[in-house]
Every structure is written in C-alpha cells, then in structure tokens.
Amino acid sequence: MLILSIESSCDETAVALVRDGRQVLCDCIASQVALHRIYGGVVPEIASRKHIEAIYGLADQALEKAGVSRRDIDAIAVTYAPGLIGALLVGVNFAKAAALALDKPLIPVHHIRGHIAANYIAYPDLKPPFLCLVVSGGHTMLVDVRDYTDMQVLGSTRDDAAGECFDKVGRMLNMPYPGGAALDKAAQGGDPSVYPLPHTKLSGNPLDMSFSGLKTAAVNLIHNKQQKGEEIQVPDLCASFCTAVTEMLIPRTMMALDQTGYKTLAVAGGVAANSHIRAALTEQCEKRGVRLCMPPLSLCGDNAAMIGAQGYYEYLAGNLADQTLNAYATKTFEGEAL
Predict the structure, then answer these.
(1) Confidence band of 333 (pLDDT split at 50, 70, 90)
(2) Residue ranges making up the domain that contains 56
(3) Are both 137 and 285 inside the same structural domain?
(4) Biggest CA-to-CA distance, the chain
C-alpha cells in the first residue's frame, strides 16, 4: 500500500511516500528554521504562510523523486493534531483536497503517534508491545505502546516539555534557534557540577515529570549573572542543564520499564537527538538487557515519513476521515485516532 503523507504541524513542511508502513520511497522537507531564527523562535502566522507556499510543489517533488504517479497513490495521510492550528490547517486542507481529487481514503494521524512510528522505519522488525519515551519541543511522556493504534500514557510532564525548556534556556544564552541543538553542542566538555540545578519531585504519579522549575532556575541564574556583570561559563551551564533534564527522564523511564515488564524501549521526538539523553539511555539499557531503539537524527525531528508509517496502521485499524476532518491544536492520542 502506497501512502502519500503530509506533515505541517510546526515549521517544517514535509511530504513523503511510504509503502506498507515501513519502506520510505522519499521524504521531502522544506525547513523554515533559517527564517524563524531571525525572531528567535517560530512565528505561527509566518509558518502558516510558508506552508501554503511550499506544500503543492513539495508534493510534486516527492512524486518525481519516488518515480511514481498520482494514480499509484492508495491513500492520503496527514497530521491533524496537535500543533500550531494555522500550520495544521494547511496540511489538512491540502490532504482533503488531494483525497477528494484522487478519490482515495483520507487517514488522520496524531503527531505523537507519528513520532513513535518513526521507529518502525528505523527498525523494520520492531513490533508492539514496547515502551516509548517521547521527548519533543511540545511533549514529554512515557507511552505504553500496546499495539500499533492502542497506546496509553503512563506518565507525562505536568507543565513544560523538556524541548521547550532547552529552547528557552538556549535563547537566554543568545544561542541560535533551535536553542536545544545549540545548547547540546555547547555542553560538550562542560562540567555539570559547576552550576547545580534543581530536580523537581512530584506527589502522585511517580512517572510524571515537571520541568518548569528547572527552566526558571536556569533563567534566574543567567539573569543574576548578567545583572552582576559576572561571566557565565556557558559550557558548564549547558552541561548542568542537560544533566538535570537527563536525571529526571532516565529514572522514570527505567521505572516504567519495570512497571510494564517490557524489554524494548523506543525513543521518539526531536529531543531524542540530545547526546546526553542518548548516552544515558544507552548505558542504562545495556545494564538491564533492554533493547534500545533510537531513530537516526533525520527521523527524530518532524518529517512526513513517520506520518506515512503510522498512517498505514491507522488505515488497517479503520481509522479514516471524511471531508469534515478538522485540525486541533491540542488533542489526546489514546484510544481511537479521532
């Protein structure tokens, strides 16, 4: 089954062609990073306009690169939630028009389910059940992937996502957008003991997380140093921040593995590219004899291939949409897709 898939939830316009949920024929991405870097972050209205400018030509480019025609497409998959509402609407409306014009099924895909499905591309033999740690710019959660479309959130952040905190602290240090990637690079060789940062403890669900206190502590530290005219040891601060985030994520992930009894851990989302997190997960999984699935960096960020991968399994489960499909800025992904 050949699926034309579309992703436009934030600042990447992406169109891919994916066969049977595992084989990527092509994945074309038009990045807006350079444009939004001027403003230090994503400007939603500009992102939406750029999606409109790019999406049609990108679809034609994907067909040409894959060496297929419109007649070869069996279904259209699209990210419908969550994300920037204006950006999502561009992709959803394009997908609806394509499905109508080609008389093909329309498959709605939740963005987080798509990130999880990136592992099916990187690891063709991977099958549920398994545990997945999702760490992206807008989400941080531990997901019990019981089946391809049956998932349960075991724990999540109660406030800010880890990725949002990385970007905010990076911006405070005058690093280029996206701040998380620049911060991770700056942390190489830094001493994490120079700037001790807090680790939030929560009551209730032991798998839940909180990053707002850590972000505030780092921002206050930077402000205080700047106001006093004191020099900030940037590599040390970045290393301290990366270590603090890692030390909140890893123990909870290991606890979730113990709770589920799974011997496979998958990682998903843009923050999964962070070298500190990847190294810590590798070490802990090796100690426990757990298989660790970490997609290559190209599949960690937003892309359409992951949407096509998950779209295949949504199709098999009968999770289809009609021309009334809408976009949603926020929406759960547990249970049914819609």
Answers:
(1) confident
(2) 2-116+299-316
(3) yes
(4) 66
Query: Distance between CA 95 and CA 72 in Å, rounded?
Result: 16
Q: Is 77 helix (H, G, I), strand (E, B) or coil?
A: strand
DSSP state of 175: P
What is the tally of structural domains in the chain? 2
CATH (domain of 38): 3.30.420.40
Residues 228-261 have pLDDT tens digits of 999 999 999 999 999 999 999 999 999 999 999 9
Residues 249 and 305 occupy one common structural domain: no
d(C-alpha 74, C-alpha 118), whole Å: 20
Are 216 and 268 contacting, i.e. CB atoms less than 8 angstroms apart?
A: no
In a domain, 285, yes or no: yes
Q: 184-223 pLDDT, tens per residue?
A: 999 998 999 999 898 877 888 999 999 999 999 999 999 9
Whether the Cβ atoms of residue 319 and residue 113 lie closer than 8 Å to each other? no
Q: For the chain, how far is it from start to end, CA to CA, in angstroms?
A: 22
